[in-house]
Amino acid sequence: MRVIGSVSSIVSILDPAVVPTRASNKNFALNAIFGFVAGIAVGAGIIVLLSFFDDRIKSSRDIESFLGIPLLGTIARLRGVKSPVDKAYIAVNGKDRAATEAFRAVYSALKIGEVSGPAKVLLVTSTTPSEGKTFVSTNLALTYAAHGDRVILVDADLRLPNVGNSLGLKEESEKHGLIRYIEGEISLDDAILREVRQNFDVLPSNAFCKNPTQVINGKKFRAMIEELKTRYDRVIIDTPPLGAVSDVLNLLPLCDGVIYTVRFNTVQRSMIRNNLHRIQESKVPVFGAVMNQMAQETARYYVSSGQYYGAYSRYYHGARAKEVEVRIKADS
């Protein structure tokens, strides 16, 4: 006890504790600036990192450098045009002057590229559903017709035909159409919808088809395309998306070249490259790409690849209840 007492007796308070009334750091402003700059740097780094891993198509450079094909033209997202039928005729109805000029630019690019003669049969496809291939094929056909070519648009998307509906010809398509011709119910002349507009005829598909590969590879279908080539200056074929089904590969031997529809900021470059490689293996030229739905504003940075598979699933199964199996004769 005596030791403890002796220790406590020599302890004294040198400076009393005082509650601080201001920050002790004299460089607060400098630290605040440093933190602000660091925050910007981190944010920029995150954006760069996301851009590095996001390989969706966003520019003409993506088309020409990464995919290695020409960009034929870009179609901006239509504003103020609500009707699907108006969109189908946008190249010629005057409702969006920019879209009209854009399709004229695509037409001009294709004409300039015809060094060895006109390409009579053009195939229009895409990677995934909902990229606007039918929109592009329809308006490109209308643009050719407006320049004086005799044009027929063939709906060869037999799994999910939409050309007739998009043009406002649903009832006419059900009475005429490709499937009825293949089955022998009507003649080719009766299957075609004539003069939908000046110089513009349509061969719709009047039913959802269970056996499209068999139809496309049949003698009657192939002879039909050869016959159409003798009647028209241009035969434009709207096809299924290549990333969803392989029907396009069976159509390639019938065409002179491919026009590839790419929706802005939607599909990954790697997916498109794979499909282009499949086309190029057939030795059929890819004339170029049309970038559709080009937007001024930046879209969301990340799209789950699961959306693609969901689109495929809807494409395969969405209309299955309405499918019919086309009756093909042994020699067709």
Automatic annotation (TrEMBL):
InterPro entries: AAA_dom (IPR025669), Bact_polysacc_biosynth/exp (IPR050445), P-loop_NTPase (IPR027417), Wzc-like_C (IPR005702). Its EC number is 2.7.10.2. GO terms for molecular function: ATP binding; non-membrane spanning protein tyrosine kinase activity. The chain crosses the membrane at residues 33-53. Keywords: ATP-binding, Kinase, Membrane, Nucleotide-binding, Transferase, Transmembrane, Transmembrane helix, Tyrosine-protein kinase. The keyword Nucleotide-binding applies. It catalyses: L-tyrosyl-[protein] + ATP = O-phospho-L-tyrosyl-[protein] + ADP + H(+). SUPFAM superfamilies: P-loop containing nucleoside triphosphate hydrolases. The keyword Kinase applies. Residues 132-266 form the AAA domain. Pfam families: AAA_31 (PF13614). GO terms for cellular component: plasma membrane. It comes from the Bacteria. PANTHER family: FERRIC ENTEROBACTIN TRANSPORT PROTEIN FEPE (PTHR32309:SF13), TYROSINE-PROTEIN KINASE (PTHR32309). Belongs to the CpsD/CapB family. This is non-specific protein-tyrosine kinase. The lineage of its organism: Bacteria, Pseudomonadati, Verrucomicrobiota, Opitutia, Opitutia incertae sedis.
